[in-house]
Amino acid sequence: MDAQQIIFQFIGGIGIFLFGLKYMGDGLQKAAGDNLRSILNTFTSTPLRAVLAGAIVTALIQSSTGTTVLTVGLVSAGFMSLTQAIGVIMGANVGTTITAFIIGLNISDYALPIIGAGALFLFFFKNQLITSIGQIIFGFGALFYGLDLMGSGLEPLQNLQAFSDLMLWLSNNSFLGILTGSVMTLILQSSSATTGILQQLFSQDAMTIEAALPILFGTNIGTTFTSILAAVGASLAAKRTALAHVIFNVFGTIFAMVLFTPFTMVLNTLTNTLRLNPELQIAFAHGLFNLLSVGIMIWFTPQLARVVSKIIPGEEDTIEMYEPNLDYSLVQRSPVIALDQTKHEIIQLGQFVLEEYDTMFDYYLKQNKKSYDHVLKIEDVVDRIDIQITEYLMYISGESLPARNSNEHAQMGEIGKYLERIGDHTENILKNIEEVNAAEKLQKKNGNSDRKNMLYNENLLELFNLVKQNVQEAMQAYETESHSIAGKVIKREKDVNNLEESIRSTYISNLNKGIGKPSDGILFVDIVSNLERISDHSVKIAKHSLGIRQPFSKRIINKKGEEFVKV
């Protein structure tokens, strides 16, 4: 076999191997549906569970890189904390060893029939699940066919003196072996591919175990480059997650090299005891290495989180990670206590809405991008909490409540919606301000700068502050059941309405004087209208605190003469 044939067969083999690996992983992911994200998002409450979740997802999608990138995305979106993410990354390193064990099965002779069977499922069935299974089978066969081609292409290397000298050099220089594994994984974008090449070389006696292990250890470092790229431009927490991935894999490699001699002895003992073939010997080495890394580092997860937080300083935006504390087991056992939990979460929802309003007002004053993005993040959280509260109240509505609690139940549903609408109006104002600022820049470019004077005036600033007071005190009245504070909100509403009318009149007067354009005033009027509606919803919350707005309910008297209300 000439050099060209060796290169072509190796490149073609590795291409088919990578295609089979990805195709199989995509099929597994389709078959699993949304469960992969749910596993990562739900089963990560403790470090051990996070490790198991990471291992399971990686085994399913056949890519530790894919799991790590998904984890970085979840952290960036606020669905996972840094500590949870570190556990998942540890588990991903364990899960990726499954591919090496699959390769160790050495069933390349059956690769073509497996591809044929997968093709039957793909082309003769229309059911989504069956075609996903076909994709898994086809990818599985392609993986082994690629390995077979790759192995055939690499076979002549064992007879080349230059290659033998290179392997001997790597055996005596562990650092170069680690670097080789890292670079190969970076180029191929798959630690499984690098491991597969090692398995083929080792099975042909083209290299010793002393040369193979450092390269194998280096594959873990190579996988970190993708997570680093995924974190570029992402949130602070995502950057810390990527750094934690780097630190964990680098320290894991250092531990393995420090324990290289006993590690090799244990591996040789397992090989002799279990009579492992060369491919499985590499697979067991990969598994032992990652289990050793996780076994040591899992105890230092909190410390690792603190280290990366010091290396990448800053305040982590944890608002998106907030989850309402709504215990569904209480609904039947004690619906009254369940209502107490709901009230606590509505108060918390009010705090988020107030923060959203404050941040929007900050954007109005300073026009900084950070405030703009933060408002949108809070609005997503407000919507999510509102949905969860509504769902929880629906479960409670299936229970019989004492009369004194029934109105409270209906009140909570309405207040939750008022708060959600305040959030919507706040987002509307934010986008109006953004459009006004964009238009103002265009006006300045054209030599007309009167828009800013019209938008940023004392009356509008006063309206912003009055509306904020109403939102703040409406929630205080609800939380403390204070009639006096609720009364202040209702009384202040008159000032809000009067000021709104004054601002509109001034705006029309300015237009008549030729200040500004009628078309530009739509955004200005929208801002004022949204502020007035926010104040209206605040008043409705205050009226609930006074007991003015009572929902319809059906009263039931039981045999004991106790009064209940079915809501």
From TrEMBL:
* Lipid bilayer topology: Multi-pass membrane protein
Instruction: Give the location in the cell.
Output: Cell membrane
One GO BP annotation of this record: sodium-dependent phosphate transport
**Annotated Gene3D superfamilies:** Phosphate transport system protein phou homolog 2, domain 2 (1.20.58.220)
Question: Where mainly located?
Answer: membrane
- Keywords assigned by UniProt, alphabetized: Cell membrane, Membrane, Transmembrane, Transmembrane helix
Q: Which InterPro entries match?
A: Na/Pi_transpt, NaPi_cotrn-rel/YqeW-like, PhoU-like_sf, PhoU_dom
Could you name the Gene Ontology cellular component terms for this entry?
plasma membrane
GO molecular function terms here? Answer: sodium:phosphate symporter activity
NCBIfam families per the UniProt record, alphabetical: Na_Pi_symport, NaPi_cotrn_rel
Protein name (database record): Na/Pi-cotransporter family protein
